[in-house]
Amino acid sequence: MPLVSMRQLLDEAAKGGYGVGAFNVNDMEQIQAIMGAAKETNSPVIIQASRGARQFAQDKYLFHLILAAAELNPEIPIAMHQDHGNSFETCKSAIELGYTSVMMDGSLKEDGKTPASFDENVAVTKKVVDFAHPRGVTVEGEIGVLGGVEDGHGAGGSGLEHITDPDQAVEFAERTGVDALAIAIGTSHGAYKFTKKPDGSVLKMDVLIKIHQRLPNTHLVMHGSSSVPKDLQDIVNEYGGKLKETWGVPVEEIQLGIRNGVRKINVDTDNRLAMTGAIRKVLWTQPEKFDPRDYMKPAREAMQKVVATRMTQFGQAGHAGDYKPVTIAEIAKGYADGSLTTKPLVAAR
Ligand code: G3H
Ligand code: 13P
Ligand code: ZN
User: Fold this and answer.
1) Which of 38-52, 142-156, 248-262 has the lowest mean pLDDT?
2) pLDDT tens digits, residue range 195-238?
3) pTM for the full model?
4) 270 in ligand 1 pocket by Cβ < 6 Å?
5) Strand, coil or helix: 220
6) Which of 227, 236, 290, 335 could pair with 248 in a Cys bridge, judged by C-beta atoms 3.0 to 4.6 Å apart?
7) Mapping DSSP to helix (H, G, I), strand (E, B) and coil, where does residue 325 land?
8) Is the CB of 189 within 6 Å of ligand 1?
9) Residues with catalytic function
10) Cα-flanking dihedrals φ and ψ of residue 153, to 5°?
């Protein structure tokens, strides 16, 4: 199956009332882990690469690995997505490579650190939509700013500093025509999200619900959605790691989000922890080993287990065969003739 439009994947998820995990990749083993989990659970998938990942693996290597995944798994719809594009140029280069979806994260300036103004965010996101849609490519925008810093990307601070304002979310969606909208509700990227199990004072599910009521036709995206399970932290620490005690986003909160318009859930940290724990275990308990396959195989298996679990919890499991992929050219036609209405139908103001 050729790579599929993320818009189609999310529209189908909305129809079916489930969420789709978007898993970050940097290398072959992570792609194989995701595809193994997708096959095992019969799930459609979103594979995403950050700017750092594209640089680490090199664009051509990464993209051709994804094409191999599509060729080897014709029954699985796969959308290939640019995570946290920092500029029009980053998104344009992903589209020209063949990505079927891009995130223009205009919530931060191009440096990926400084919060941008609302108007700057609207302008750059609209520019990306105007370039992407005639080419059949999906666009995710972000309004509000997440906490934390990952690989130099992020404004730092806690997730509570720039929570999304529902009025701004409505205006942003109307002015840009994005297909999907990432919102800030208190989460942060990375392992250190919360100092205890989060409640409504730090994880603002009420804001998410309000935004969904106002924008029922815009697919919502939850970033920073790793659950950072204690058992994965423990394995890392048992074999010489030094993670401080921390809490992620409980799966039941994500499921509440899915019942309220969340269609894309970004997960990276849980997979990083699973792989690192598995690698540490081999190197710690069998210090005589030095063949990378001896630790990369358990690492890949550990990640596959996490991804398969999330696919089941998010509800995408079992849905890979529900629909036929629409070609990217047909999707472009849909944007042009208005049948893929990108302007949300705004409910109660
Ligand atoms: O947005 C954060 C993702 O976990 C990707 O992280 O920029 O370190 O590749 P990265
Ligand atoms: P986590 O760090 O919680 O896995 O979030 C990943 C993410 O949002 C990627 O865009
Ligand atoms: Zn993110």
Assistant:
1) 142-156
2) 999 999 999 999 999 999 999 999 999 999 999 999 999 999 99
3) 0.96
4) no
5) strand
6) 227
7) coil
8) yes
9) 83
10) -105, 125
